[in-house]
Amino acid sequence: MVRIAELWLDFIQDPEGSDLNIAPNDENKERWIKFAESIIASDGGALKFAVVGEDVGGSVLYSWEDSPLQLQKKRGTIYDLFVKKSSRGRGIGKALLLNAMKDLRNHNVEIIQLTVKSDNFVAIRLYESLGFKEVLKIMRKEV
Ligand SMILES: CC(C)(COP(=O)(O)OP(=O)(O)OC[C@H]1O[C@@H](n2cnc3c(N)ncnc32)[C@H](O)[C@@H]1OP(=O)(O)O)[C@@H](O)C(=O)NCCC(=O)NCCS
Questions:
Q1: N or C: which end of the chain has fewer CB within 10 A?
Q2: Phi-psi region of 43 (alpha: psi -120 to 50; beta: other; left: phi over 0)
Q3: Does pTM top 0.70 for this prediction?
């Protein structure tokens, strides 16, 4: 878990993948671990990772219980998908995503939701190739 959280820390400091608003510190690494553990412990989601050699090459965290409200269609959320820089472009991200999508469908999820930075073209291309479409915009203003 700590090795995956270290990859997550790299991911949130990567301007290509993250909006850089999450403070990259050890406290947040611990909080991310607690968040991932709480999802797993509640049996409402999963954390999967890819092993490359003896190392963690990438990871995906997702949930099939993402809303306290009754929804018309059961929705799942993919929170974090990341692949170590040195392991990118080898099909790991796509494999992790497909695995998460399959697991979500097995938990009766009908809609899968995720957030991606508007200029993260690599990730957007991956998501679009698997049928994801833009339906919401997140708007921000510094005040
Ligand atoms: C996005 C990310 C997870 C993709 O993982 P990856 O293992 O490198 O991707 P894959 O090798 O499985 O490639 C999957 C698809 O991504 C796209 N892709 C991958 N590398 C690409 C590149 N250099 N340029 C353009 N598209 C690319 C392609 O559509 C590719 O599909 P194809 O091979 O059928 O053409 C990875 O780049 C990453 O961790 N980025 C930083 C974190 C991030 O952005 N996460 C998503 C946050 S929402």
A1: C
A2: left
A3: yes
